[in-house]
Amino acid sequence: MPYAVELLLDVDAAERVRSLWERLTEAGIPSRLLEIESTPHVTLAVYDDLDPDEARGPFTSFAAEETPEPVSLYSPGAFPGPEGVLYLAPVVTRGLLELHAGFHERFAELDEPTGKYFFPGAWVPHVTAGLHLTEEQLAAGFSILRQADLPIEGRLDRLELLEFQRGPDGPTGPLNVHYRLPLGG
């Protein structure tokens, strides 16, 4: 079963992102994130295999040593290729890059992370807005996000370990949250 290590948006910023997911859904653009009950987040790493119990102590220590990271979701974007991923991109700050690099340095011994968008040096930090969208849905979704009241200012204030299932159209529910850890203890 695959696992994602995620940084969660604070409650207010997450609510603003969820309202955009709802706007997309109402416009006929299936975000799927609402139906699988995802929490707005920026993914640090994805692993094909991980022991949540073994990782709990080291992840707890890591989270306690980090401070909440300010984030500004500034612009809509989409990944190239057939995956049809629409997202909100944060302003990439030194603090965000250092947090990501620090995580991967500290947990280099874990099972090799997967997912080309999550490796240090190639990481594309993002908050997903839609998955496996058609070209038409991407264009319509991009238009909706461009007209949204951006930027969304907030903080990444918790680290989450999430177990999910992979389906043909991306992650499927139910999502199994193993733990959420506050940054900064």
Would you kindly provide a written description of the structure presented here, covering whatever features stand out?
This protein has one domain (3-182): Cyclic Phosphodiesterase, Chain: A. Strands 1, 2, 3, 4, 5, 6, 7 and 8 form an eight-stranded antiparallel beta sheet that branches. The protein is of the alpha+beta class and 185 residues long. It has helices spanning 11-26, 52-65, 94-106, 135-147; strands spanning 3-9, 41-47, 69-78, 86-90, 113-114, 127-130, 152-167, 170-182. The two termini are 28 Å apart. The longest helix has 16 residues, at 11-26. Helices cover 30% and strands 35% of the residues. It contains four helices and eight strands. β3 (69-78) and β4 form a beta hairpin. The mean pLDDT is 91.
Topology diagram in text:
Elements: E1 3-9, H1 11-26, E2 41-47, H2 52-65, E3 69-78, E4 86-90, H3 94-106, E5 113-114, E6 127-130, H4 135-147, E7 152-167, E8 170-182
Antiparallel strand pairs: 1-2, 1-7, 2-5, 3-4, 3-7, 4-6, 7-8
Task: List its traits.
185 residues; alpha+beta; Cyclic Phosphodiesterase, Chain: A; 30% helix; single chain; 8-stranded antiparallel beta sheet
What proportion of the residues is helical, as a percent range? 25-40%
Tell me the span between the first and last alpha carbons. Answer: 28 Å
> What's the overall geometry?
globular
Largest sheet: 8 strands, antiparallel
CATH class category name: Alpha Beta
Uncertain spans: none
Strand segment count: 8
Integer count of domains = 1
Briefly note the CATH topology name.
Answer: Cyclic Phosphodiesterase, Chain: A
Give me the number of helical elements.
Answer: 4
CATH fourth-tier homologous superfamily:
Cyclic phosphodiesterase
Structural class: alpha+beta
CATH 2nd-level architecture: Alpha-Beta Complex
- Rg over C-alpha atoms, rounded to the nearest angstrom: 16 Å
Whole-number average pLDDT?
Answer: 91
* Residue share in β-strands: 25-35%
Counting copies of identical and different chains, the oligomeric state is single chain
- What is the H/E order? EHEHEEHEEHEE
